[in-house]
From TrEMBL:
SUPFAM superfamilies: Periplasmic binding protein-like II, Winged helix' DNA-binding domain. It comes from Streptomyces albiaxialis. Belongs to the LysR transcriptional regulatory family. This is LysR family transcriptional regulator. It holds the Pfam family HTH_1. Keywords: DNA-binding, Transcription, Transcription regulation. InterPro entries: LysR_HTH_N (IPR000847), LysR_subst-bd (IPR005119), WH-like_DNA-bd_sf (IPR036388), WH_DNA-bd_sf (IPR036390). It comes from the Bacteria. Residues 20-77 form the HTH lysR-type domain.
Length: 313
């Protein structure tokens, strides 16, 4: 069976030739919003002839007509409407990527240092940082990412102003508040026997299986340890990896089953690169929390970021 493009995690070398550059997609979104190629050109800082050439190049690259041009302005074709919807997702993802990477830089002028566990840092924090940039454009942010235990250590050591964790409770020495809820899913590649089961797993079956897992100290591992303690605890892991992305890639490759956040596996479940395996009788939901040192309620930009996380539930 032919494997879907990208299923192995290896970049497709032809992809760069098929996907338009980001500037062209931003121009197309501006045309869709303003209804005029000339106004879109001015908004994006290019001349009208250059904008027209960029749209035509994109049409040639994609092999579809995107705009109907007339003296009254430019209107999207039906194909152009679809491409614009897809382009919007790419541009939003690029903005989230930019916000996340900017926060990772060690900037001397940073006024806010955020520590976040890996799942939150990967899947939730970028959109919060974009919102913070809009609300406080002059606030520079540094991000420290690690497991939940590492986040607690950074806060207690005075190396971060605000933290985000995913464990079973608030780490010792910290205060916090629930900002969202998450569910852990047992997943396996389509070729694994669990993916073809007709009956849910029993808790003891899950506890006794050799799984691909995050390291001790991660929020995911804490929840699993507590949930399966009554069934003998977790068996020795098949693989123990330090990031959600690495665990997910190993599971997709067929190395073995895993337990991952629902936030992390949505695309893989939709593409059937991973299959959710139901489990009976075990609670795998968890709260996601903002945390800070006891007696040091967040103020300034940290308080603003905390408010934004609640507003975007």
């Amino acid at each position: 069976m032919t494997e879907p493009a990208g299923a192995t995690g290896v970049p497709d070398p032809a992809l760069a030739h098929r996907v338009p550059e980001l500037g062209a997609l931003e121009l197309l979104l501006a045309v869709a919003r303003l209804g005029s190629l000339g106004r879109a050109a001015r908004e994006t800082g290019v001349s009208q002839p250059a904008a027209s050439g960029r749209i035509r190049s994109m049409e040639a690259q994609l092999g579809v007509t995107l705009l109907e041009r007339s003296p009254r302005g430019s209107r999207l074709t039906p194909a152009g409407t679809l491409v614009t919807d897809w382009a919007r997702r790419i541009v939003e993802a690029a903005e989230a990527f930019d916000a996340g990477v900017a926060a990772l830089r060690d900037r001397r002028d940073s006024r806010l240092t955020v520590a976040a566990s890996m799942t939150i840092a990967e899947y939730l924090l970028p959109s919060w940082l974009i919102a913070l940039r809009t609300a406080r454009p002059d606030t520079a942010v540094s991000l420290r990412a690690g497991n939940s235990a590492a986040v607690a250590a950074l806060l207690l050591g005075g190396e971060a102003d605000l933290g985000f964790v995913e464990g079973t409770g608030i780490p010792s020495g910290l205060d916090g508040t629930v900002i969202a809820h998450d569910r852990l899913l047992v997943v396996a590649a389509p070729g694994h026997p669990w993916a073809r089961r007709r009956k849910p797993l029993a808790p003891a079956e899950l506890a006794g299986a050799r799984l691909i897992l995050r390291e001790p100290g991660s929020g995911t591992r804490q929840v699993l340890d507590v949930a399966l303690d009554a069934y003998g605890g977790l068996a020795a892991p098949l693989l123990e990896l330090a990031s959600t992305t690495a665990v997910k890639a190993a599971a997709v490759s067929g190395a073995g089953p895993s337990v991952l956040s629902e936030l992390a596996v949505g695309d893989e479940l939709s593409a059937r690169q991973l299959i959710e395996v139901p489990v009976d009788g075990v609670e795998l939901s968890r709260a996601l929390r903002a945390v800070w040192p006891k007696g040091a309620r967040p103020t300034g930009p940290a308080r603003e970021l905390l408010t934004l996380t609640r507003a975007r539930r």
